[in-house]
Amino acid sequence: MRIHTILSVLLLSSLLACSPGQKPSPEPSREPIVEPSDNPAPEPSQEPSQEPSQEPSQDPSEDWSWTDGYPRGVQVSVFDDTFADGGKCHGYIATIDFAANPNLRFNCKYASKKKTPSTMFAEFPEEEGVPCLATNAGYFAGSTSVSLIAHAGRYVISAFRAFNWPNDEAAQCTIYPVRSAIGRMEDGHFEIDWVYCTDPAFKTHTAFPSWLDNNEKTQRFMEEPPKADYCADTREWKPVDAVGGGPRLVKDGVDISAESYWGECLDAGGTSGFSRVNRTAAGITADNKLILIVADGRGSNGSQGLTLAELAAKFIALGCTDAMNLDGGGSSCMVGAGGAVLNKPSDSGGERRVSSTIVISEMPH
Questions:
Q1: At 88, which helix (H) or strand (E)?
Q2: Based on the structure, what is the number of domains in the chain?
């Protein structure tokens, strides 16, 4: 009688363990696009949805109150640089230390209808924490982002796969640029990589060791979009939150801004790499701090701005091992304590409406 009961339990457990699950249906495939268009979010099962792994605060007696409008781990400072030729640059540096405050979150947000960074700060979802800092982020054309955006483990916008070069009005060829992106991975560490959407059907993005075989300076471009196996040392790129831009400014502590500028094909797009203009950029230190810089330009606050090489030098001086440029010019904006705009955007109307922002928030303790 006892043996019969044990066998019955084992049989029931076996049946329950073998119950079949359901597989998600993939998105339909589509051809590469040349004109900007919104990309719908993928099925939830295709990307990790959890927040980066972090140890929460375990000591409720600690003082987690904000100081001067910022939570622990967030510091904002002003800089005023004068160059050897007499040029000047005024701007802001934000340092975000996630080790000092594991409740901080790095959020990359998309606005299908463009909004100013201060509006996106004010409308930040309550369930994603209390915002303390925001900057403009990736490039956009018309009403949509042409730089990748990932949020909460899902690609909201894929990296743009094809562009008319040098522009839509006077197109000479189609190019497939592999551009920089910054992302926070599932374990909490930051990465800056050259990324391309190698499978538009499933929004699969691949990290490459370089910008591959594009060179805008010599006008030599890849004739076909790169596949995931285009070269060695590639891997699927699966950040929790990420945003694209370019060019990459610093790699392993070395200024590579000029080479990346031509390789990522950003000259025709108006990035003005060798001129002093408004800049927004992001960097990573060896101990995983995030550095955000916004520099005024075009005369705002008496500032000319920075070249990409000057911006790279600034990140290196701040201890960054990697850094990348984001959208600049009139889009450059930093929103700080209480939702106030810290810098002086150069557009005559003030803040420019943009498609994407980086928002730093703090979750409840």
A1: strand 88-96
A2: 1
- CA 186 to centroid of chain Cα atoms: 15
Domain that holds residue 346: 64-153+242-362
Give pLDDT tens digits for 55-81.
555 566 789 999 999 999 999 999 999
Measured CA to CA, the distance from residue 180 to residue 237 in angstroms comes to 12
Write the CA distances from 327 to 21, 111, 203, 246, 277, integer angstroms.
44, 15, 23, 8, 11
Buried b or exposed e, range 141-177, using 16+ CB within 10 angstroms: eeebbbbbbbbbbbbbbbbbbebbbbeeeeeeebbbb
Residues contacting 235, CB < 8 A, separation 6+: 206, 207
The percentage of residues in the chain with a pLDDT greater than 70, rounded to a whole number, is 84
Instruction: Label the pairing between strands 88-96 and 248-251.
Output: unpaired
Q: How far is CA 108 from CA 138, 148, 268, 289, 316, in A?
A: 10, 10, 26, 17, 24
Domain contains 52: no
Q: Which burial class, exposed, middle or buried, applies to 191 when counting CB atoms under 10 A from its CB (0-12, 13-18, 19+)?
A: middle
In the predicted model, what is the mean pLDDT of residues 265-272? 96
What distance in Å separates the CA atoms of residue 198 and residue 347, rounded to the nearest whole number?
36
> Both tokens of residue 280?
């927004």
- 357 assigned to some structural domain: yes
Residue 142 belongs to a domain = yes
Q: What is the pTM of this model?
A: 0.85
Report the alpha-carbon distance of residue 156 to residue 37 in Å, rounded.
12
Query: Looking at residue 365, what is its pLDDT?
Result: 87
- Token pair listed for 114: 């463009």
What distance in Å separates the CA atoms of residue 275 and residue 183, rounded to the nearest whole number?
Answer: 27
Q: Is residue 191 part of a domain?
A: no
Q: Which residue(s) pair with 254 in the sheet?
A: 251
